[in-house]
Design brief:
Structural class: alpha/beta
Radius of gyration: 30 Å
Number of helices: 16
Helix content: 40-55%
Distance between the termini: 72 Å
Length: 494
């Protein structure tokens, strides 16, 4: 080819000002030739000058040009022939303004398009009143560091590969002992599957216990994470109404929408807070067994119960119950640990453990060993007692503040357990608008309307989830007063 053509097409990129390590000369030459090829300035089939010729013209060493040519050849932009290096014939790539170019990337699947996009990240997650987040400042970090150090000292090379299928044996044994003592769930360690938080357990159940197109029952309103797991598994969602005694399936629900999966939060319904009545528990267990359906019992926030004794788990009520019991350490310790578990019947324990290992390669060995020792030493139970007392004070302070500043405007539910209160508006107020006003003011309130399945909410059923795990006692009064002012401005249209 004419050397002048190549030289006119080449524009060696210059180092950025202040760049402490500018690209080497051969990288700059490589980038220039590649850019000329991809832009079409150098067309396919053109023969490039010999390395010696180009080096002399550009006043570079021949090795610099050789390295650039070799990289281009390795990536397929140049083809070595007996006549020398030739520009590869690339298919034409439409530019962004080309009328024949695609107007968009392929995009999400139909299931992806309906997944709620309300996830919170960054510093916003620690603001008042983010629901579902514990007070991470009270986490016993020095003890945890010591446990992690010990775990890493004890790990042998074999345990530095992938972890054990189903979780590390030490943690599975510790969890089995803990749920037996705390929740009356008697199981063997082999029935415990360690997961990536409770969400990992829900995903596993949704994909492996039901086929696409089968029906999954969800409490309505209900936990968004369960909805996401069921939707992305391709299941048909059917909402079950919730009243003061928990989920209330009707004969029409059983007849017209027979379930394969039934997701429940019986000890503390999320987000409204009632306990599932004993009569309904036994009825659901019996009818699920007759319908060949699985119950997923999410023991959401059961560790933080402030009134009376702990509520027995559903899976402990009848022998051979078709129940998957799900728990997590995200709410009691740190969300970032991403450690949860599922207690499953013997009939599926080995299969689900093996399948789970295919979804997410087992890992976090040191964290699992440290957590097992935290539980076995009794320090986990002591931490729960400390946090239960602290959260009880905040819950009481939040109730008083709501009564003082929003009394008559909201009805409060969900206070017997958990890390949040649900304030239900007693008149028609747009909770999404309140949420947006609060966000701009530095508060995080979750609108109740988002927890209903699309198209199923009573227009008058709106409110706010107010978490108290992330707000100090002394800050609650001022934050509620500020929220009340924002709600008043929304009511008056200001």
């Amino acid at each position: 080819m004419d050397l002048a053509v190549l030289l006119s097409a080449l524009q060696l990129p210059q180092p950025a000002p202040g760049d402490a390590r500018p690209p080497a000369l051969h990288r700059r030459l490589y980038q220039a030739i590649k850019g000329a090829i991809t832009s079409g300035a150098l067309s396919g089939g053109l023969k490039l000058p010999a390395t010696r010729v180009l080096a002399q013209e550009l006043k570079l060493s021949r090795n610099t040009v050789l390295l650039a040519y070799e990289q281009l050849a390795a990536e397929g932009y140049l083809v070595a022939t007996t006549q020398g290096s030739v520009v590869a014939r690339l298919p034409r790539i439409a530019s962004a303004d080309d009328s024949r170019a695609s107007k968009a990337t392929p995009g999400l699947s139909a299931r992806g398009l309906v997944v709620p996009m309300h996830w919170r990240t960054g510093s916003d997650i620690l603001k008042a009143f983010t629901p579902g987040i514990p007070d991470i400042g009270k986490f016993p970090l020095p003890q945890w560091r010591a446990l992690l150090d010990r775990a890493y000292r004890d790990i042998n090379p074999r345990r530095l590969t992938f972890g054990e299928t189903g979780g590390e044996p030490e943690l599975r044994s510790a969890v089995a002992a803990y749920v037996a003592a705390a929740r009356g769930v008697h199981c063997d360690p082999e029935q415990v599957i360690v997961t990536q938080g409770a969400q990992g357990a829900l995903d596993l159940c949704a994909r492996m216990l039901a086929d696409p197109g089968q029906v999954a029952w969800l409490e309505n309103p209900g936990y968004l994470g369960a909805r996401v797991a069921m939707q992305t598994a391709g299941l048909q969602l059917h909402g079950i109404a919730v009243d003061a005694a928990g989920a209330r399936p009707t004969e029409a629900d059983w007849r017209d929408h027979p379930p394969r999966l039934i997701y429940l939060t019986p000890a503390h319904q999320y987000p409204m807070g009632p306990v599932l009545a004993a009569e309904r528990r036994y009825d659901l267990l019996q009818r699920a067994r007759a319908a060949n359906a699985w119950i997923i019992e999410d023991d959401y926030d059961s560790e933080f119960r402030y009134e009376g004794d702990p509520i027995p788990a559903m899976c402990s009520l009848l022998p051979s119950s078709p129940v998957i019991y799900v728990g997590t350490f995200s709410k009691t310790l740190l969300p970032v640990l991403r450690l949860g578990y599922a207690v499953v019947p013997h009939s599926v324990s080995r299969a689900l453990g093996n399948i789970g290992a295919q979804f997410t390669r087992p890992g976090h060995v040191a964290e699992q060993l440290a957590l097992a020792r935290l539980i076995e030493s009794g320090r986990y139970a002591r931490h729960l007692r400390t946090m239960r007392s602290l959260y009880a004070e905040r819950r009481a302070a939040l109730k008083l503040a709501l009564d003082r500043h929003l009394g008559g405007l909201v009805g409060v539910s969900g206070g017997a357990a958990g890390l949040h209160l649900t304030a239900v508006f007693q008149e028609a107020i747009d909770d999404l608008a309140v949420h947006e006003r609060a966000r701009r003011a530095g508060l995080v309130v979750a609108p109740l309307s988002r927890y209903y399945l699309p198209g199923s909410r009573d227009p008058l059923r709106s409110g706010m989830l107010l978490g108290y795990g992330t707000v100090a006692n002394q800050a609650i009064e001022g934050a509620v007063k500020q929220l009340a002012q924002l709600i008043d401005r929304e009511r008056r249209g200001l």
